[in-house]
Records
---
Amino acid sequence: MIDGGKWIYKEICVKRHFHYLLAFPALVLYKRDKVSKINSDIKRFLHYTSHNECNDAAFMCLMSEDARFRSIFYYRMYKKKNILLAISRKLLPGLQTIEINGKIGGGLMIHHSFAIISPERAGKNLTVLPGVVIGRGRQDIHSGRLRPVLGDNVFVGANASVIGGITIGDNVTIGAGSVVTRDIPNDCTVAGIPAKIISKNKMERH
């Protein structure tokens, strides 16, 4: 008689190896193009894996098991219009509930499965929780921008909105449910509708 636990374990292993095979076209792209921002993204996601460093194995694990990471990877590779990218999208699709546009630095982290992330540009280590909207709004009269610019190490809480041609500084935490329509300086926490500074802080990384 076959032990039930061993049978389930073998089935899980087979499925995992099958998913790793599906991620092979993406691995070819990753190794060929060597986009440094992708490595920074992998480092932010490592705690979701059994890996301790950024390498091919960690990449394969994330591509095969984490649809959020796949969405970020496809965003990074959007200019690479080739058959390998098309095959990878077909075999291992990203999340249709995550929209990513604009110029975003390495180390992007998206928690859960719904967000609209469309800044003019954003720095490194941007962290986004579910329900966030970053995008178009009132035009800035000086720059002419319609979308926000975010600095490094910005944390955007659940269901917060950052809209218009505003500027968000480095090391800024935006509280859950906040609506940000004005410039925010470096090193502070904001909350509310409209968002106001509630504390000053110095954060190296979220």
---
Amino acid sequence: MKIHEFSDELSSESAAPGGGSVSAVAGLLGASLSSMVANLTFGKKKWLPLFDQMLQISQKSQQLKDELIQLIDADTDSFKVVMEAYNMPKKTENQIIDRTSAIDYAMKEATNIPFKTLKCCREIMDLALEAAQYGNPNSISDAGVSGEMANGGAHGAALNVFINLKEIDDVTFCTEMNKKTHFILDETKTLLIEIRKIVAKVLNNG
């Protein structure tokens, strides 16, 4: 699906794709930018000592980008499964039991998808920070945008985790997922502060 087709579908009355897919898009854009900064650094003679480091950033960014591309559709597909579960018949006791079980399974999977997106975005922020610290200073703004996009993707994914947890009765699952999500968000907040400091320093002293 091309970007204008995606945005048209996103802006329609259809409930999916939604915020979860958009969060994955934000993350993959961040990954693409961190890869770009690395690619604009290695291969240049004066940055030859950084070749292995930049190559690793580029390769890891591409890996995360590819994973997030899959998560765009996975998020939409998981929502469809949730809707199918809610639409199951509930006239008999057995039907109610089956429907409840199906909803529980579908909601947990619909929560796991944005949590995966959150973790990917968290990893991208590490790469964006490294790209800002050691990458081509002429691309410092791109490293900054990489971090900003990954942070946006992380927070968007977390919002989708939290809203799905409201529909899950499994207290143990919800408590653990809530704890892990907040922990990662705290890490992304710290990373974003560091990225912004580095970007501001280069831009102000350039």
---
Amino acid sequence: MLISARAASNNPPPDGGATSVPTAPTTSESTGVPAPASPTSASGPTATPKPTPAGPTLTEQVQGKALNALLDQTAPARQLVISALASIDNCTATSSTYTDLNQAITVRNSVLTQLASLQLSELPNSGKLRDALQSAESASLLADQHYLTWSQNASYGCSGQAIHDSEYAAASLAGQDAVTAKANFVALWNPVALSLHLPARTSLDL
């Protein structure tokens, strides 16, 4: 019996190969359950959202509306001057023509007075806005004053067409300065007006 047992132990496996030892599956140390494979993210890193731009402050809105209201006063004055000049140039001026010119001058003076005390500190380019509008209104006022003097000179012996004297030339020169200053102001004001949902302007509105 001893010899038979030794012989059996020395016999190789039937297939002639080494005895294989099965490999145990990987398990979780705590539960003995096979550990799941680590998930792979299908997407890249999460993008950081961009901050939403802040809207205008309440103070900025109030100041913008106040300046817009001031601009509303200027357009009627310009129309008064245009109408009066046409009558004077055609020698058809009446007493109301000179009243209209004086009214336009009064409006320009009033706008300049109000502008001097208007709070604009919260508006973008507030200093440039104020300076540009002041230049535009001052030049327009000077032109209107020269036109008034010209109209008085032209009223004597006017026939067909009024004579364009030195006062008319001075008014035209001041008017050109006003056009330039108005364009500068409009370029500064319109982006601000857009951000505050206020109407855009052109030089013809001032």
